[in-house]
Write a structure and sequence with these properties.
The chain has helices spanning about 15-25, 35-40, 75-85, 110-120, 190, 275-285; strands spanning about 1-5, 30-35, 55, 65-70, 90-95, 120-125, 130-135, 145, 145-150, 160-165, 170-175, 175-180, 205-210, 220-225, 230-235, 240-245, 245-250, 255-260, 265-270. By secondary structure, the chain is α+β, with helices and mostly antiparallel strands. It folds into two domains: about 1-125 and about 265-285, Probable inorganic polyphosphate/atp-NAD kinase, domain 1 (Rossmann fold, 3-Layer(aba) Sandwich); about 130-260, Sandwich (Tumour Suppressor Smad4). The chain has a six-stranded antiparallel beta sheet with strand order 8-7-18-15-10-11, with no helix packed on it. α2 links the parallel β2 and β3 (about 55). α1 (about 15-25) runs parallel beside α4.
C-alpha cells in the first residue's frame, strides 16, 4: 500500500508517537511518501531506521492508496490541499486537542492503522466549495473543505455584504463579515458565530454573519446547488477573503461567487466510527458534571 503523510511540527514528547506510526506502517510493508515540509521535523535519531520517499506540495499524488494527516483539524485542511482533486482517502490522527476531522487519538493509533490495512473502513464523502472570481485568487487552491469567509481587514467600522442566491438578493449584511460553510465547516468558525450543526450528507451550505449589527439577522441554510455571490461596501477599501486557513486581500472591485466544487474529500471512517459519535465525544453531549 502506498501512503502519503503530512503533519505539523511536534515536540519531543510526541517522538514516540510518530515512531510508533512509522513502525506500524513499516510492519505492514507500506511505501511512504512524506511531504518535504513535514520531513524537516523527522530529524531525531529514532527516525533514522525508517525509509521513505518525499514529495513537494503541488505534486500530483494519484498513485497513493491512502493519506495520513498527523496533527489537528488545521493540519488535515492543509493535507487536503496536497491531495487536491485526486480524492485520495485521508485519515486524521489527532496529536492536538479537539479535532472534529482528525479523530484518531494517540492511544488508538495501532488499532486504527490495523483497521486501515485490513480495509475495515468506509469513505465519508465530504462536499467542497469553490471560489470563483474575476481575479486569480488562491491559484489552483481555490477550494475549501470547511468554509469561505469575507471579513473586514482592520478594526474600524463594519462592512456591508450584499449577498445574492442564484442572482436574487438574499440580504445586505451589516456586519464584520460573512461565512459560507460546508456541512463539514459547520463545526468550525461558523459554529462559534452561532451557526447550526449540519449533517455532512445534507447537501447544504450555511451562510452565517459575523457580528451582525441587526440581531434579528440569523444564519440561513441553502442548497449547495446554489450560486452565492457578493458585493461588498465599507469605509475601508480592502477586505480579507479566506478559504479554510488561506488568506487573500481584495478590494471592493473584486467579484466573488461560491459554488459547490465538482470533487469531494474522502475521509476514512474506520469501523466503529460515526459522525454522531464524534459530536457526542467532542461536544460532551449526554454528560452531566454532577455524575
Amino acid at each position: 500500500m502506498k501512503i502519503g503523510i503530512h503533519g505539523k511540527e511536534f515536540n519531543r514528547q510526541l517522538v514516540p508517537v510518530m515512531e510508533s506510526i512509522l513502525q506500524c506502517l513499516q510492519r505492514n510493508k507500506a511505501e511512504l511518501f512524506i511531504s518535504t515540509k513535514f520531513e524537516k521535523y523527522l530529524k531525531a535519531s529514532a527516525f533514522k531506521k525508517f525509509k521513505w520517499n518525499t514529495y513537494e506540495p503541488g505534486d500530483r499524488l494519484t498513485k497513493l492508496n491512502a493519506f495520513l494527516s498527523i496533527g489537528g483539524d488545521g493540519t488535515l485542511l492543509e493535507s487536503v490541499t496536497h491531495i487536491g482533486r485526486d480524492e485520495t482517502p485521508i485519515l486524521g490522527i489527532n496529536t492536538g486537542r479537539l479535532g472534529f476531522l482528525a479523530t484518531i487519538s494517540k492511544e488508538d493509533i495501532e488499532e486504527s492503522l490495523t483497521k486501515l490495512f485490513r480495509g475495515a473502513y468506509t469513505l465519508d464523502k465530504r462536499a467542497v466549495l469553490r471560489l470563483e472570481s474575476n481575479e486569480k485568487l488562491f491559484g489552483a487552491l481555490n477550494f475549501a473543505l470547511n468554509d469561505f469567509t469575507l471579513v473586514k481587514k482592520d478594526s474600524s467600522s463594519m462592512i456591508t455584504v450584499h449577498t445574492y442566491i442564484d442572482g436574487e438578493l438574499l440580504n445586505s449584511y451589516w456586519a464584520d463579515g460573512i461565512i459560507v460553510s460546508t456541512p463539514t465547516g459547520s463545526t468550525g468558525y461558523a459554529l462559534s458565530c452561532g451557526g447550526p450543526l449540519v449533517f455532512p450528507r445534507s447537501g447544504n451550505f450555511v451562510i452565517t454573519p459575523v457580528s451582525p449589527h441587526n440581531l434579528t439577522v440569523r444564519p440561513i441554510v441553502v442548497s449547495d446547488n446554489s450560486e452565492i455571490s457578493f458585493r461588498v461596501e465599507g469605509r475601508s477599501k480592502k477586505f480579507l477573503v479566506t478559504l479554510d486557513s488561506r488568506v487573500e486581500v481584495v478590494d471592493d472591485s473584486v467579484k466573488l461567487k461560491v459554488v459547490k466544487e465538482n470533487f469531494k474529500v474522502n475521509l476514512i471512517l474506520l469501523e466503529g466510527q460515526h459522525y454522531f459519535k464524534t459530536l457526542r465525544q467532542k461536544l460532551n453531549w449526554g454528560l452531566d458534571i454532577r455524575n
